[in-house]
Amino acid sequence: IIAAKSGFTFAGYATPEATLHSLLWAASTGDVEKLLACCTPDQVKRFKAKLAGKTEAEVAASLKQISTSMADFKLEKTEPISEDQARLHLTVQPFPGHPHVGHDIQVMQRIDSNWKYAGKYGVDFKED
Fold first, then answer.
1. N or C: which end of the chain has fewer CB within 10 A?
2. Phi and psi, residue 12, nearest 5°
3. 33-to-20, 29, 30, 111, 126 alpha-carbon distances in Å
4. Which regions in the chain score pLDDT beneath 50?
């Protein structure tokens, strides 16, 4: 899967990959409530802590920056960890046109029948 350079769309939460697209779509809108709807309860708490004290305009700009920085990504593989958890391995450019690419791992968790964003592996998410 390669993200569309022309923008993101809401893809639902049926798969880890769809949730990633929905998360980036939500960030591209600058709407924090849409973004939080894509996340696990623990990730919602982490996001709210990071956003504390920022104005609505600052939050919107920050979210849009996240989606812009991931506008050019390639999903290398989905690594199942358990029935309810997966890691998405991505190749990402720091920003469009940047000459270097990096590797990123995003954790997705199934809650009931929906997959939700649980955080960046190694940064937001810690293994038990």
1. C
2. 85, -165
3. 16, 10, 9, 18, 24
4. 1, 126, 128
Residue 100 tokens read as 């270097």
Residue 25, helix vs strand vs coil = helix
C-beta of residue 89 within 8 angstroms of C-beta of residue 95: no
**pLDDT tens-digit series, residues 74-92:** 888 999 999 999 999 988 7
Q: Answer for the pair 85, 118: CB distance below 8 angstroms, yes or no.
A: yes
The DSSP string of 44-61 is HHHHHHHHTT--HHHHHH
Q: Which sign, positive or negative, has the C-alpha torsion 23, 51, 106, 43?
A: negative
Beta strands in 18-123, from DSSP E residues, in sequence order: 73-82, 85-92, 102-111, 114-120
Residue 101 DSSP class? -
